[in-house]
Amino acid sequence: MARFDLVIFDCDGVVVDSERLVFEVFGSFIRSLGVHLSDAETREQFLGRSLADCMTIVERLSGKPAPSGALERYTAERDRVLGERVQAVAGIREILETLTIPYCIASSGGYDKMRITLGATKLMPYFEGRLFSATEVPRAKPAPDIFLFAAQRMGASPTRTAVIEDTVNGVRAGCAAGMTVFGYVDLTPAERLVEAGATRTFTEMRALPALLA
Predict the structure, then answer these.
(1) Which of 3, 15, 49, 199 pairs with 168 at a CA distance of 20 to 30 A?
(2) How far is the CA of 117 from the CAs of 11, 34, 142, 163, in angstroms?
(3) What is the pLDDT of residues 129-172, one digit of tens each?
(4) Over the stretch 26-78, which tens digit does the pLDDT of each residue have?
């Protein structure tokens, strides 16, 4: 009997290599609002969070609301950069082509952003009808809502669901949902993912099938 009935992938940083590009644009955006953080501080504050939660943090740090139209200008620039430059995470296509367990995506990002990145990387056919966004649930990661929502829609028990995440907030969300979380190591060090609750970590997608077996 298979160990898991469902694999839930995070999108940014796990399926599409988008996080460096997004933080490049986001860093410029928050500096324009008077928030000056190092790259490490920016990742610590914002990585794995929904845009709505990020804006709450930005406005708290700046001490004032974002100017009218600023958020729309940011998302337009972010989407332009992603559409032109985003790549698939190395090895993910081969995993999706050989994975025998049902799978889906559960992301802090909105559907428009996912369609841009999955479309640009030609990965959308693997996930058509199996995309779930935190915009549909009351609370974004690190709350478990999006993972529980995805599992319910996919007909899987949380205890028999594996989550693939690359951020502390994502790992915490998967653990809070009662799922087994495997940490993909890229921008966040392995020890941080383990501290957050990841069962195991890995650095190359080709290692994932053995972890799921």
Answers:
(1) 3
(2) 9, 29, 22, 20
(3) 999 999 999 999 999 999 999 999 999 999 999 999 999 999 99
(4) 999 999 998 999 888 888 888 878 888 899 999 999 999 988 999 899 999 99
Helix axes 51-62, 70-85, angle to 10 degrees: 130
Count of Cβ atoms closer than 10 Å to residue 136 Cβ? 14
Query: What is the rounded average pLDDT for all residues in the chain?
Result: 94
Tokens of 133: 């966004």
Q: What would the two tokens of residue 148 be?
A: 């529980």
The pTM is what?
0.91
Alpha helix ranges (H) inside the chain: 19-32, 39-46, 51-62, 70-85, 92-98, 111-120, 124-127, 145-154, 168-176, 190-196, 208-212
Question: Is 63 exposed, middle or buried (CB count within 10 Å of its CB: 0-12, 13-18, 19+)?
Answer: exposed
- CB 157, CB 5: distance < 8 Å: yes
| Dihedral angle sign, alpha carbons of residues 141, 190, 78, 89 | negative
Tokens of 5: 């009935």
**Does residue 142 have a cis bond before it (omega within 30 degrees)?**
yes
| 200 residue type, one letter | R
In DSSP terms, 202 is beta-bridged to: 184
